[in-house]
Design goal:
The protein is an alpha+beta fold and 164 residues long. Helix content is 38%, strand content 35%.
Length: 164
């Protein structure tokens, strides 16, 4: 497995293609498809990703044998590193890739002197919640987001405080 920091338009296009495949397949079992489409169209287009990168976001592509199989998105906010996105194609889930991406997240947090890693996870995403809890994250609060689409999503804010 190879993890590559996204730096060019071709890699950004690859992320959008992965988003189109991964996000509907994964989230459609617990979120309405119209909200899934809204999410992709708002946050995972080439324009949106370019804007995020210009505002300090970091994206990483995960490749296996020259095939892109997923991606990671991180955002720095003061002394916190936000784990914004971990998406992996279905056939590659459960093979330790998420753990390796968390390891990279911890390394990026240390390099930026972050004291906390935080993330939001949809309340119905039980598999992800178990994964994060297993890796030392705790639920801080429940946040209700009302999106421009009109859809309301309840998410757990999960945090992991880093020893300094």
């Amino acid at each position: 497995m190879q993890i590559i920091q996204v730096t060019n338009p071709s890699q950004i296009k690859t992320i959008t293609e992965l988003a189109e495949e991964i996000i509907p397949e994964y989230y459609s079992s617990f979120l309405p498809m119209e909200h899934v489409r809204f999410f992709i169209n708002t946050y995972q287009t080439e324009t949106a990703i370019n804007k995020q990168l210009k505002n300090g976001f970091e994206y990483y592509l995960i490749n296996e044998s020259d095939t892109s199989i997923g991606y990671l998105g991180l955002e720095r906010k003061k002394d916190t590193l936000v784990l914004s996105k971990i998406y992996v194609l279905n056939p590659y889930r459960g093979k330790g890739i998420g753990t390796q991406l968390l390891d990279l997240t911890h390394k990026r947090a240390a390099l930026s002197n972050a004291s906390t890693i935080e993330l939001l996870v949809v309340k119905q995403n039980e598999k992800a919640i178990r994964f994060y809890k297993k890796n030392g994250f705790t639920t801080s609060e429940i946040i209700s987001h009302k999106y421009e689409s009109g859809f309301v999503v309840e998410e757990y804010l999960m945090r992991k405080h880093l020893g300094k």
